[in-house]
Each structure stands twice: as C-alpha cells, then as structure tokens.
Design goal:
With 92 residues, the protein is an alpha+beta fold. The protein has a single domain, classed as Beta-grasp domain (Ubiquitin-like (UB roll), Roll), CATH 3.10.20. It has two helices and five strands. The protein has a five-stranded mixed sheet with strand order 2-1-5-3-4, covered by helices on one side. The protein starts with a strand and ends in a 6-residue tail after the last strand.
C-alpha cells in the first residue's frame, strides 16, 4: 500500500492532470522526493531552496497541518493521505 497525495489544481499540470498520486516514503520529505522523481519540477513548487515548505503551501498528513508536526520531516505511513493546499489570499 502507498501514501495518497492529493494534488491541487495549480500543480496538476506537473502531474499530467492527476488529482491524486500514489507514492511511498517514511517522511513527507521522502514523499516529496518520490513525487519529484515521478513528476520533475513539482518539488520546486512545494519547497524552497533549503528543502523546507514554501510559505504559501500548506501540507496536511491525515488532516494534521505538518507545520504543527515536524514539517517536511513529519512521519508518513502506508495508507496515509497527504493533502497539498496552496494558501489563499484575498480581501478588499
């Protein structure tokens, strides 16, 4: 079994239109690296030069915001669901 990653609309052009991809890894960092090998260019859209999540990208593992866990070092397991959610700005 693998980890399912939900892909937001703005990133689907990198994943050939897929809204979900299956990948494996023991941490979010490994999941992102695995996605990068499948879909080159996705990592730079999610992570900064240091490998940390970009400020405008929110990532959840099973509904938990990884910023309140261990960030890109947050543990993942088979059957987990990772959601990538771009930040939404707005107002007047």
């Amino acid at each position: 079994m693998a980890t399912t990653v939900r892909i937001p609309t703005p990133l689907r052009r990198v994943t050939d239109g897929q809204d979900k991809v299956n990948t494996e890894g023991a941490t979010l960092r490994e999941i992102i690296d695995s996605m990068e090998s499948q879909f080159p260019g996705i990592k730079e859209r999610i992570c900064d030069e240091d490998g940390n999540l970009r400020n405008f990208v929110n990532v959840f593992v099973n509904g938990e915001d990884v910023r309140f866990l261990d960030g890109v070092d947050s543990a993942t397991a088979d059957g987990d669901e990772v959601s990538i959610v771009p930040a939404v700005a707005g107002g007047r």
